[in-house]
């Protein structure tokens, strides 16, 4: 009986020590995380929101990042990070992938082009619209809607921004899209 009681007391003492050590590590980690937040108090709050959102997006927490960016847009409408936030939201949808997210990405990029047509990031937004359609493009014997949309968007990019550094990439992808469309036309003609 005594041995059992001593064994149980020893086990409970061991668990309490391990538990206390684990709690100490957790509390130390929380203290380390709290220190940078205090240091950032001198930085503009819109920059803090923007940086935090980018970190969330990089770590795969797209929804949290988009929520922070949307908070930045709504709370600080005159922020210097407004355009970057809108573009980052669209990029987040693009990176996350999936049909619904790519549709949201297209809408976000097009909004960026409408609201900020003269910023240096506008050509990037235009080529991303085209790349989104390109990503959704099917095989030559399937639906051609996305291929035609990609062709149109690449041609728009080349017409609007002929001297942009992304022109060679756009030309190559445009050739790829046109080859897919031509292959589809050939197969249709060959069948009939």
Question: Would you write up a description of this structure?
Answer:
By secondary structure, the protein is an all-alpha fold. The protein is built from eight helices and no strands. Helix 3 runs antiparallel to helix 4, helix 5 packs antiparallel against helix 6 and helix 7 packs antiparallel against helix 8. About 6% of the residues have low confidence.
Tell me the total number of β-strands.
Answer: 0
The fraction of residues in strands falls at under 5%
- Helix and strand string, N-terminal first? HHHHHHHH
Give the N-to-C terminal Cα separation.
92 Å
Structural category is: mainly alpha
Count, helices: 8
Question: In summary, what is this structure?
Answer:
With 192 residues, this protein is mainly alpha-helical.
Task: Tell me the layout of helices and strands.
Elements: H1 2-39, H2 45-58, H3 62-75, H4 82-96, H5 99-115, H6 122-136, H7 145-160, H8 167-191
Main features:
192 residues, mainly alpha, flat
């Amino acid at each position: 009986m005594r041995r059992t009681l001593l064994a149980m007391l020893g086990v409970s003492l061991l668990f309490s020590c391990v538990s206390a050590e684990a709690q100490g590590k957790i509390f130390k980690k929380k203290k380390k995380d709290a220190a940078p937040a205090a240091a950032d108090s001198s930085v503009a709050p819109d920059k803090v929101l923007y940086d935090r959102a980018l970190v969330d997006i990089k770590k795969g927490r797209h929804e949290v990042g988009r929520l922070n960016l949307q908070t930045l847009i709504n709370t600080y409408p005159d922020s210097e990070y407004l355009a970057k936030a809108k573009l980052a939201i669209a990029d987040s949808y693009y990176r996350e992938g999936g049909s619904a997210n790519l549709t949201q990405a297209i809408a976000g990029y097009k909004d960026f082009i409408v609201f900020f047509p003269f910023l240096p990031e506008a050509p990037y937004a235009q080529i991303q619209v085209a790349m989104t359609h390109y990503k959704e493009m099917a095989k030559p014997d399937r639906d051609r809607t996305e291929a035609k949309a990609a062709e149109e968007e690449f041609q728009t990019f080349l017409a609007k921004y002929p001297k942009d550094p992304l022109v060679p990439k756009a030309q190559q992808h445009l050739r790829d899209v046109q080859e897919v469309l031509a292959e589809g036309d050939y197969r249709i003609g060959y069948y009939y």
